[in-house]
Amino acid sequence: MYVRALSVTDFRSYPAAVIELEPGVTALVGPNGQGKTNLVEAVGYLATLGSHRVALDAPLVRMGADRAVVRGKVVREDRETLIEVEITPGKANRARLNGSPVTRARDVLGTLRTVLFAPEDLAIVKGDPSQRREYLDELLVARSPRYAAVHSDYDRVLKQRNALLKTSGHARRTGSSLGTLDVWDAHLATAGAAVLAGRHELIDALRPLVDKAYAAVSRGGGPALLEYRTSLGEDVTETTDRELLEAALAAALAQARDKELERGITLVGPHRDDLVLSLGELPAKGYASHGESWSFALALRLAAYDLLRSDGGEPVLILDDVFAELDDTRRESLAELVAPAEQVLITAAVAGDVPAQLSGSRWDIAAGQVTRVR
Amino acid sequence: MYEGPVQDLIDELGRLPGVGPKGAQRIAFYLLAADPADVRRLVDALTEVKDKVKFCTICGNVSEAGQCRVCRDPRRDLAVICVVEEPKDVVAIERTREFRGRYHVLGGAISPIEGVGPDDLRIRELMTRLADGTVTELILATDPNLEGEATATYLARLVKPMDLKVTRLASGLPVGGDLEYADEVTLGRAFEGRRALEV
Ligand SMILES: Nc1ncnc2c1ncn2[C@@H]1O[C@H](COP(=O)(O)OP(=O)(O)OP(=O)(O)O)[C@@H](O)[C@H]1O
Ligand SMILES: [Mg+2]
Ligand SMILES: [Zn+2]
After folding, report:
1. Per the domain annotation, does B13 fall within a domain?
2. Which of A57, A274, A346, B89 could form a disulfide with A27 if both were Cys (CB 3.0 to 4.6 A apart)?
3. How far apart are alpha carbons A102 and A110 in whole angstroms?
4. Does B186 share its domain with B157?
5. Are residues B183 and B100 in the same domain?
6. B34 alpha carbon to ligand 3 midpoint, in Å?
7. Predicted pLDDT of residue B198
């Protein structure tokens, strides 16, 4: 698939901008702070309803405006779909597909698929477990949009359960709300099992792809290994059997209950787990060199791209400022690997940062003006 | 900030559910400019609702008399109770004309975030209604969201020792909808929640 046109209104620095795109490589070039990332961020938003830079929507709306609108025309197997999303901070997004409003904005998920590479990706390797969980969960949603609901269900149960645990001192005395804790445990176990089954299946599919991509990026390095570390104990780290996972999670909650009542917070479940990345015997975090860490981060994104492509519906690749971060070898490997993709959007501060293999159309971005130069 | 009565009105409107500060201002200025007769009717409706409308002593539904229309109707089946969250759910189910039993309105759903526990709902009243053995079936029709599900689970566990038939409304695909047009998330859930067809 590819994005044929993007238009934004009051998004980030842009009062309004329109850009026509083609399959193949498109480079957005211009000095720092001119609005290159803002544009690819908008493309990513249409695919994920989130930004790769910020967790909340407020910074996406142009300072002084009430709401932002992002529109994109997506072509997939000769069929064109218009996605429109209106972002109003603090409120639910509104969205339309081909002009018809959808019930919930998340109904547009799955129409456009993207894989976005950014300097921030290094944090997947070097950062805390939440970064790696986010990598997994985003990819789950990209592969099957139903996981957006699975995750929001889990988050909601978790919030409710934590709220109950916080008032547990009182509940312990009256004995009444503790009866509802059992109910929340059951719901947390069900929702958590769905998340875990999804993650386990995903990791299984990713393993060979990550190792292959790592070898390609680093020219023969590796092996790059993935291992899920759960709070539920060893024997359920791989299974995708939901009933088994639900039982394990329920048992873990029962075991942790005293400690949880004391601390007032849920201590077991997928929100506490980690995806351990290792190079051979050594964990990547804390051990891998800067270059190796970059190779791992790239390998994770490339594997995501491979996986989505093999599911059908080739995703759009977005490379935000990554070439400038890489040494010559990794830069060349990455360029080779992404060159055949159906559409690649690249941002770079100087044209020289875009590898020669990736020549295509080029837009210059300066002071919010978007001009096609090639 | 506006002067006296205008600001008072904005403040009062702003306390209503679903009305933010901006909305409160819009409504206030709409009312200021509106025809006095229209405003009079609104005031009368508000006064009347507070004076006349009570809650049914049996089921908790809104009612003009001590007992609501459903509870007063001798043709309704006393053996079945349908548990709902709000009076508006009674209206929705009555519209389907499918249900011939009586209701029990809880007045909400369990939600620790909002500080709502079982004791804040009309659960004790429900247990009292179930005590004499007249009721043999309980339909749990709380909302198909997390809080509604949790409330249903809680009630199902609570009445388990009572030897009642307990059922939950099926949720998933909207009835009368085309499979083709169901959104992916709903469809996905419907698949997950699928049941064996007994023949
Ligand atoms: N909500 C907003 N309202 C107005 N301006 C904004 C908003 N958010 C970001 N900006 C401006 O957008 C600019 C950043 O744009 P962007 O991140 O696209 O830069 P860039 O061209 O990618 O630069 P670099 O080469 O440094 O990555 C900044 O100057 C910032 O002040
Ligand atoms: Mg940038
Ligand atoms: Zn009644």
Report:
1. yes
2. A346
3. 13
4. no
5. no
6. 37
7. 41
Interface mutation vs chain B, best among A107, A150, A180, A187, most B CBs within 10 Å: A180
Would you list the domain boundaries of chain A? 1-113+313-374, 121-312
With respect to CATH, is domain A121-312 assigned 1.20.1050.90? yes
Q: State the CB neighbour count (10 A cutoff) for residue B31.
A: 14
- Interface confidence (ipTM) of the complex: 0.76
Among A29-43, A45-59, B68-82, B136-150, the minimum mean pLDDT is found in B136-150
* Joined tokens for residue A323: 């070439």
Helices A146-166 and A129-143: crossing angle in degrees, nearest 10, is: 140
Cβ density class A322-340: b for 16+ within 10 Å, e for less: bbebbeeebbbbbbebbee
**Going by C-beta distance under 8 Å and a sequence separation of 6 or more, which residues neighbour residue A317?**
A114, A115, A117, A305, A338, A341, A343, A344, A345
Could you tell me how many residues make up chain A?
Answer: 374
Q: Which tens digits make up the pLDDT trace of B125-140?
A: 999 999 999 999 999 9
Beta carbons of A42 and A86 less than 8 angstroms apart? no
> Could you give the C-alpha distances from A221 to A119, A176, A299, in angstroms and in order?
21, 58, 11
CATH 3.30.390.30 corresponds to the domain A1-113+313-374: no
Indicate if B79 and B140 belong to the same structural domain. yes
Q: Would B66 be classed as within a structural domain?
A: no
The pairing of beta strand A68-76 with beta strand A2-11: antiparallel
Residue pair A17/A367 in contact by the 8 Å Cβ criterion = no
Helix (H, G, I), strand (E, B), or coil: what is residue B47? helix
Residue B169 tokens, joined: 């409304």
Is the model's pTM score more than 0.90?
no
pLDDT in tens, A44-96: 999 999 999 999 999 999 999 999 999 999 999 889 999 999 999 988 999 99
CA B6 – CA A368 distance, rounded (Å)? 44
- Same domain for B158 and B175, yes or no, is no
Contacts of A146 in chain B (CB under 8 A): 184-185, 188-189
* Inter-CA distances, A120 with A116, A297, A298, A322, Å: 10, 10, 11, 9
Q: pLDDT tier at B197 (50, 70, 90 boundaries)?
A: very low
What residue numbers bound the domain in which B181 lies? 171-199
